[in-house]
Amino acid sequence: NADSAMYRAKEAGRNNLQVFDAEMAAKAHQKLLRHEELRDAVTREEFVLHYQPQMNLKTGRIFAAESLLRWQHPERGMISPGEFIPLAEETGLIVPIGDWVLNEACRQNKAWQDAGLPPIVVSVNVSARQFKERNWVARVAEVLEETGLEPRFLELELTESLIMQDVGTAVATMHELEALGVHLAIDDFGTGYSSLSALKSFPVRRLKIDRSFVQDIPRDADDMAITGAIISLAQKLQMQVIAEGVETQEQVDFLRASGCDDIQGYFISRPVGAAAFVALLAG
Ligand code: C2E
Ligand code: MG
Ligand code: MG
Ligand code: MG
Q1: Mutational test site, ligand 1, from 125, 127, 129, max ligand atoms within 8 Å of CB
Q2: Pocket test for ligand 1, best of 42, 67, 68, 97 (most atoms within 8 A of CB)
Q3: What is the distance, to the nearest Å, from the Cα of residue 262 to the centroid of all Cα atoms in its chain?
């Protein structure tokens, strides 16, 4: 009857709520564990940088590399940044992690130069939390000083969303960084919301065209149009332009014909460990 149906429904609802609560608690607990694990990873230095070459389309020369963070987990193996950077940002652990990355990238680049390899620029991804730290510019200067790397061999990648959170402050910080002599790039360009009028006031050397525009070239005419437009925009603003996520010869051909300066992507190499990168650079 209706009453017992109601009773059963209420009972089921209560059970669902209990299940829901238990699931939430389990998730919260798991997150706490992951936070602790990540915090320990910082002190145990379980991180490693991989390097992905960037090639100039005119000379065919590898002139730079992007450093990409990996977590070497003692049990779970190599973990990619997409899996732990969001938690690191949420918990603020990105600050010490980012500091480690900056130092390691500069140290490694200087070591390569000291070993007699052709000098390259190494770029480092910067998170919003890190960029907003009060003494961050001083910290960059300190790392360069300590590692002995000349500032012109360091590039910092900022995203549009990072800059647009507070354009005024970001542009001021960017000018301070530029004054140090490091280079700046806008990462994932085209996916954020930077206004074109703001863009011209950014002291950046180059734009990195987001992989999402590159991946469907030459199948997607719209993506080709957008990519072409970003290239002309960069040229007109006298910025360098690099395409990310380049995987095929057709993409290379299109980018070259469109006047793109440089490319990065699996077409040249996946991100690789330092030793493998040396082989790429030397060979
Ligand atoms: P990102 O800075 O845009 O880096 C490019 C990503 O695209 C890398 O993923 C790279 O492995 C991948 N990629 C490069 N070429 C190709 C290609 O041809 N095809 C495809 N399908 N993918 C390609 P990864 O290493 O997983 O890094 C993901 C993101 O994590 C980075 O995107 C960056 O936003 C963030 N990240 C990486 N390292 C750091 C770091 O040290 N600090 C911070 N704050 N973020 C980092
Ligand atoms: Mg990047
Ligand atoms: Mg990118
Ligand atoms: Mg990205």
Answers
A1: 125
A2: 68
A3: 17
Spatial distance between the Cα atoms of 57 and 40, rounded to a whole number of angstroms: 42
Q: What is the DSSP string of 232-274?
A: HHHHHTT-EEEESS--SHHHHHHHHHTT--EEESTTT---B-H
Number of separate helices (H) and strands (E) present in the chain: 12, 9
Token couple for 203 = 């002291």
Return d(Cα 48, Cα 74) in angstroms, integer: 13
Please tell me if the CB atom of residue 69 comes closer than 6 angstroms to any atom of ligand 1.
yes
Q: Is ligand 1 within 6 A of the CB of residue 214?
A: no
Cis peptide before 74 (omega within 30 of 0): no
pTM of the full structure: 0.92
Which atom of ligand 1 lies closest to the CA of 246? Answer: 18
Q: Is there an atom of ligand 1 within 6 Å of 195 CB?
A: no
Is residue 123 within 6 Å of ligand 1 at its C-beta? no
pLDDT in tens, the chain (283 residues): 656 666 666 666 666 667 778 888 888 888 888 899 999 999 998 999 999 999 999 999 999 999 999 999 989 999 999 999 999 999 999 999 999 999 999 999 999 999 999 999 999 999 999 999 999 999 999 999 999 999 999 999 999 999 999 999 999 999 999 999 999 999 999 988 777 888 988 999 999 999 999 999 999 999 999 999 999 999 999 999 999 999 999 999 999 999 999 999 999 999 999 999 999 988 7
3-state helix, strand, coil in the chain (%, to 5): 55, 20, 25
Ligand 1 atom with the shortest distance to the CA of 264? 15
